[in-house]
């Protein structure tokens, strides 16, 4: 990873869209546009729609950028490379392609709410199936929420409740 300013994040930390845009030397709107063109590019979204990119998201974006800008391929070419498996996509990012179409609700997992291409009736889209990466992410969110709740309770008690 690139060198960061003081207080830098670890290599495994999630990055905001501004950090990714700076690292890849791309405008933020290009990253948002690529989300609509490449099913595998689906950063996590949290409060207010803020995007958080995993290290594997950034690696994929870097590969897409190089194919488009350095190697001269078109978006359709890169889409085909992804579909044919000519570009290595980490397992946790591959799930987005199962429906065959871009997901309109990016805050959901692929086919998560029945609005995907398969209508949510396919047995392979069972919401109970979580890979280790997604389970870990959910556990981290739960831990953050629990800590915030506990802090709010403590603050409420300190305020004279």
TrEMBL record:
One of its GO terms (molecular function) is DNA-binding transcription factor activity. Keywords: DNA-binding. Pfam families: MerR_1. Residues 87-138 are annotated as: Disordered. InterPro entries: DNA-bd_dom_put_sf, MerR-type_HTH_dom, MerR_fam. Residues 16-84 form the HTH merR-type domain. CDD domains: HTH_MlrA-like_sg2. This is MerR HTH family regulatory protein. It comes from Limimonas halophila. The lineage of its organism: Bacteria, Pseudomonadati, Pseudomonadota, Alphaproteobacteria, Rhodospirillales.
